UniProtKB/TrEMBL annotation:
Renumbered residue ranges of the record's region Disordered: 1-31
Swiss-Prot/TrEMBL GO biological process terms: chromosome segregation; intracellular signal transduction
MF terms in GO: ATP binding; protein serine/threonine kinase activity
Organism: Cervus elaphus hippelaphus (European red deer)
Protein name, as recorded: TLK2
One CC-aspect GO term: perinuclear region of cytoplasm
Length: 114
């Protein structure tokens, strides 16, 4: 007979409302945690894109500098070859009638020996 009394049903409603409030509170915290995690993911993705762009700029600059250095080395090598050619000697093409022959021309280092 006490189960149907107003005091027993009231406490049951209170327990039910407390448990539903706890569930709502838990769901609210989970939703907040999900939102925080999504925000962190977005921030990390933005940072990743920023670092990718920076890396691409660095790679581009490195390529540019390597190409420039290679061109400078090539020009230095060409200059040295020309200096060595004048110092040691070189072949020159000489025309004899209708034909061409190559003739060695001594450079100044060999001429000074003679």
């Amino acid at each position: 007979a006490q189960q149907n009394s107003p005091s027993s049903t009231g406490s049951g409603n209170t327990e039910h409302s407390c448990s539903s409030q706890k569930q709502i509170s838990i769901q609210h915290r989970q939703t907040q945690a999900n939102c925080d995690l999504r925000r962190q993911i977005d921030e990390q993705q933005k940072m990743l894109e920023k670092y990718k762009e920076r890396l691409n700029r660095c790679v581009t600059m490195s390529k540019k500098l390597l190409i420039e250095k290679s061109k400078q080395e090539k020009m230095a090598c060409r200059d040295k070859s020309m200096q060595d050619r004048l110092r040691l000697g070189h072949f020159t093409t000489v025309r004899h009638g209708a034909s061409f022959t190559e003739q060695w021309t001594d450079g100044y280092a060999f001429q000074n020996l003679i």
